[in-house]
Records
---
Amino acid sequence: MTSPPTHAADGEPGNDYAGWIVARAGATGFATELDMGGQSLTADEPVSAGGGGAGPTPYELLLGALASCTAMTIRMYASRKKWPLESVVVRIRDTPAHITDCLNCEIQEVGVRSLDRVVHFEGPLSAEQHTRLLQIADRCPVKQTLARGIQIRTVE
């Protein structure tokens, strides 16, 4: 198998790597450029961990994916039901902090073992609508993927 293209957008018809997320790190530091379907983003580690603080950490990106998917799933459902949801705010944090995992990754299993999520709704929702939207939060595809576990294969 050949190497993926430098940019995810390089996916021409028939290209085996169309749709790939591409991460490219330089020779020094931790700053990593991400190309995601034509969108660019920089990930990095905080200065306190030896990075440059140029972007969110990989764990923050993971938590951001979960928070944004939760908010989008709730918004989609409320819109489809024509419920008066004015806004939804999702807060997520990992426990314990990921830096401990980073420091100990060579000697022990690592990974987020527990996440705290707070979902706040604005708008004149009934108690039943509020309860249903909290249930819908658990239907978020990213949450379901993480909760079920995921197998990651490394290929060349």
Note: Confidence is low (pLDDT under 50) at residues 7-13.
---
Amino acid sequence: MKKLLVTGSTGLVGSRFIELVKNNFSVVTLGRNNADIKINLTNKGEVSKTVQSSDAEAVLNFAAYTSVDEAEKEKNDRDGEVYTINVLLPTWLAKACKSSGKNLYHISTDYVFNGKKENSPYTEEDIPNPVDSWYAITKSEGELGIIQIKGKFSIIRISYPYSGIYRRKLDIARAVVEKLKNKEPYLGVEDQKIKPTSVDDIAQALFFLLQKEATGIYHVAGNYSPHEYITPLQFAQKIAGTMNLDESLIKPISFLELSKKRLALRPKNTWLSTKKIESLGFRITNIGEALKKFKNQMLNE
């Protein structure tokens, strides 16, 4: 059984990945809390030594500082937690993996793009060019750090992950459910192109790439066929329909208007092309199926 070292195992994506693959891989988690091996992920020496001395075949890095607005408070601080977790940690892992012959699988984001590409989705060939937000900048620099090491790696860019199981973070889908259940209005952006993604699909895509020992950059994002993308407004309406919640509480707002209410800049149109991973034979769940599963998971909590 293939052995994996996993960081960020208690987060939205990492926790679900472990749940879904625990019978197929031997998983060893790294981190400060609730981890198999207790290490400080902001300490280069501890990270390097642990990876190099392990007999695991691959390292999966789910660890990330993901609060976009909170990250802005550390803007340009290269000694801060955001920079350390999003840039230095992936680079340390890449170096340690290269010197010990391991594959690194790193989770990145659609936020590495500035969202100004309006007429077609971003592909793996597009050059990252983030908006001026510290989260986006650090995630982009983290990718670059891995690529420059020139070891064996896979960078998996994901988009607006959501889960029917994970309660510790209010993702894009849960935020809609929470507002509507409380009979509060939900502001849905009507002029933005995105592809929210089920965490189960992300976990299955990683499992697929691990089995293929695939290297390179891959996009994993929701399937909105026959359309290529969805707006946050339409996504909220689909959730309301699936969950039998009051759709009239969903109010349209422009991207520009909502941006004025936020601390950090966001990229506008970050719909990702998934043709590359699909060409290898991976199937991404259609939005209808994905939201039915989301509903069942929410009801069974």
Note: The chain has a mean pLDDT of 96.
---
Amino acid sequence: MDAKLMECVPNFSEGRDLEKIDRIVAPFRGKPKVKLLDYQRDEDHNRLVVTVIGEPDALKICLLDAVAQAISLIDMRAHRGQHPRMGAVDVVPFVPIRNMSMAEAVDFSKQVGKELADRFSLPVFLYEASAANPARSNLADIRKGEFEKMPEKLTMDAWKPDFGPVAVHPTAGVTAVGARNPLVAFNVFLTTQDIAIARKIAKAVRHKDGGLRFCKAMGVAVEARRQVQVSMNMTDFSQTPLYRVLELIRAEAKRFGVTVSGSEIVGLVPMAALTNCAAYYLGLEHFSLAQVMETHLI
């Protein structure tokens, strides 16, 4: 019988110090029943996104070691970056991949969340499918106020952590843990340095402000490119494909006399998220993933 397989995509609040990044990623390297698939750092966001896959118990051991490294290396009191953040280990999502149901992934995420709280004295919130309270399912709502406002936020009855102390870890902040479906981190660059334009476009495309379903978006300055970007999480690319949000951003950008200069994927992406874009732009009729040669070689 095939083993259970799970993906984990922890986000750490360090994207600039290569030595620290190497120490955080090291626990995932060369371990049995675990495979490090990818890790990407962003200096403007000051953030590290790791993608790892493995059997749940083996994955948990590696994750706990990486968290220990992050907590010892990252001081949130000194952290600055473009991406919203509330903790050294900002978010730990789990995605069931093979022989696991979402319910099993939720149970596993709760076990990990409790262990993180007990071992590191971290306040932990459960989010997405793991959230006990529907008001906490959206990560953006949990993170609102970021690290600096969390001490006050945690004193509110509505924001008592699911696990751990009702007080922010002095240097590591707060962590969110949960089970979710695959998402695509998709960023679109604009030919302007005006952050107000990126924020207006982000508001137009994101679901909570009347935009596209399954799209979360914000405007971010990218100093290295002297541009801004619309930074997005597409939480269900099968319902809202990447080409649709890209074309809406193009249309909104025209209002401000700017254009799209490019885009990027952060971390790994399901093949179907890209093939449905190819089918759209090529005008392919009756196309399916089964026509991609590589799907028959896996």
Note: The helical segments are 18-25, 56-73, 102-120, 139-143, 146-153, 195-205, 242-254, 271-282.
---
Amino acid sequence: MKVSVIFSFRNESGNLEELVRRTDRALKLANCASYELIFVNDDSSDNSENILLTLQKNYQIIIINMSRRFGVTPCVLAGLNQATGDVAIYMDTDLQDPPELIPELIIAYQQGFDVVHTTRTNREGETWLKLFLTNMAYRIINKFSNIELPVNTGDYKLLSRRVINEILKLQEYDPYMRGLSIWVGFKQYFINYNREARFAGNAKFSLMSKGPISEFLRGLTSYSAAPLYISLILGLFVTFISFIIIIWALICKYLGVSYPGSTGILVAVSFFSGVILTTNGIIGLYISKMYYEIKRRPQFIIKDIKHYQ
């Protein structure tokens, strides 16, 4: 059995040597017949590539350099496209997800599971606010989507060859990978582990940065049209309220009852404007997804691939 381990990274020079050493040791403990370490370089600006080129002399490392910065998901897909293993394991390069878990993932695969997830029971080095908002994001996605996304189950997982082939067939421009691994079905298994603090360097995505917010919106809109229905219900509710206000205003005028005009107008206009902008924004999210899908641009562009000898 051949194992492909995929790492998407950007500016992780402080982690690479330790990551390669620990991953190589874990794969040897798993008694893999052969393996490859696929590093997808998301246009790093530090010394990461040179470090990998040096490590390539002693380890079976493949370096995929992207033509520009594309993001984590396109890099993972680029790695899956190049992977030649019977299974693929993909994970982050910050060593928060321990490579020592790899033998357990492989054992689960050998027992007949096609997708092996890792679920974080504890997350060191992260604030309570981040943990709370992350849990809420998972629950919101589950509430409105047609998949059951496991809470605290991230991007560290094993996929069998037939699952890889099914995911690559989909050709979605902006897929939500955590959801796809659930959506494809097949036999799935979960392994609990303790997520460690980052080994070196700083986090690439802060709590309220573009990355986590985009990932949440991608997960929310990729597997459900529920937000569109919510905007419709909200619109009908506001229409009903406005109808009541109109009736009330006509009655007051007929009875000659004076009432403050400017405050009521400001409140009504502000409320209705907010609802209109919210519903338009929800519709816009879906339109933007269709817009990118219709253009059929490639998910990523590879600049070059450097193989080990």
Note: The chain has two domains: 2-208+299-306, 226-295.
